[in-house]
Each structure stands twice: as C-alpha cells, then as structure tokens.
Amino acid sequence: MTMEAFGEEFGEESSRWQLPEDLSGTTEPGWLSEGELAETRGRVPMLYVEALPVRVEPDGRVASVGLLLRGSPTTGRITRSLVSGRVLHGERIRDALMRHLEKDLGPTAFPVLPVSTVPAAVAEYFPWPDRLHDPRQHAVSLAFVVPVSGECQPRQDALEITWLTPEEAVEEAIAADMEGGRGALLRQLMHHAGAL
C-alpha cells in the first residue's frame, strides 16, 4: 500500500511536507535565528553530519586522510576537524552531506557520496565532559567516509586541509589536536574504511 493510498483509506489529505507559512523572519528555509538556535540546543539534540575525506588507491585502499584546520567555535583555538555541520529542517541527509563537503572543501573536491545514507558511525556529543563533548549542545552526528578525487580548496571557516597517511592520522598528537574527543571518532571511521 502506498502512502497516498494509506492517507486516502483513512480519509486524510496527502501528507506532503510543506514549509510553514511563518519562517520566523529567516530568509532561508531550515535556518534558525541565533535565539531560536540557542533555545533549541537547550531542549533537543541537534542532528549533524560529519565526513572524513579520503583519497583512495585504484584498488580502493585508503591512501590518505584529509583533516581540516579551523578555529574552534567554542574555544577559539586552532584545531583539526572533520567536515561537519548541521542538518537543516526538511533537508535530506545526502543533501546536507554534499552541502557541507562543498562548503568546507570547495566546489572542485568532487566527493563520491556513498550509495547508502547509512552512516559509517553514529557519534553522540554531550554538553558535559564525556567521551565525545560539545559544550554548546547535545548533538547526534551521522559520520561518513567520503572519497574525494578533485582539488580541495578549503573555504568558509576551514583554513586548510592536511593530507595524512592513515598511520599518521591516528597518532596521539593528531587526536590531541581534535576537539571534543573527535580523535576517537576518526579512529572509528578509519577502522570502518579498513585503513587500520
């Protein structure tokens, strides 16, 4: 039975998703004002996507791992990070992933998105000290390993991308440069990719 038939059978109108009439003054659907974002972060977990950009050999083995260098929004320090960002209301996971890859790596990175949007890992960040930590919020992140074949030109708040061998990427010094325990997530993604 299709969803349309399900709705008709029970006398309901088609349940197509529509934007609300009032977007609370925002100019783009899905964006929250600073006040709305702060209030929402205090009440519900936020959904994020994270991606580990990799370059692969012709046989599919991971040759190098890309880590971004950026200023931390919480500490102001320069840290290493994965590609990451919020999923907007009404946005598909695949679209959010592509948006953040392009935002952080530039339009010529040519990422190869996974066929399935089942993540390689799910990370849960808490606003109190824990294995994975984000002092701003409780967040759930769907993490992916994404091969890129083009030239990466970091933009927005990403300062540069550093390509490391899989062995270099999991060194303690690198993990220590990653905020909020993301070094553990990096290691988990590397295992998923068969790079360790």
TrEMBL record:
User: Where does this protein have compositionally biased stretches of type Acidic residues?
Assistant: 1-12
The protein's matches in Gene3D superfamilies, at most eight in alphabetical order, are given as:
Nucleoside Triphosphate Pyrophosphohydrolase
Which residue intervals make up region (Disordered)? Answer: 1-31
Instruction: List the Pfam families hit by this protein, alphabetically.
Output: DUF4916
Name of the protein in its database record: ADP-ribose pyrophosphatase YjhB, NUDIX family
User: What is the organism field in this record?
Assistant: Nocardioides terrae
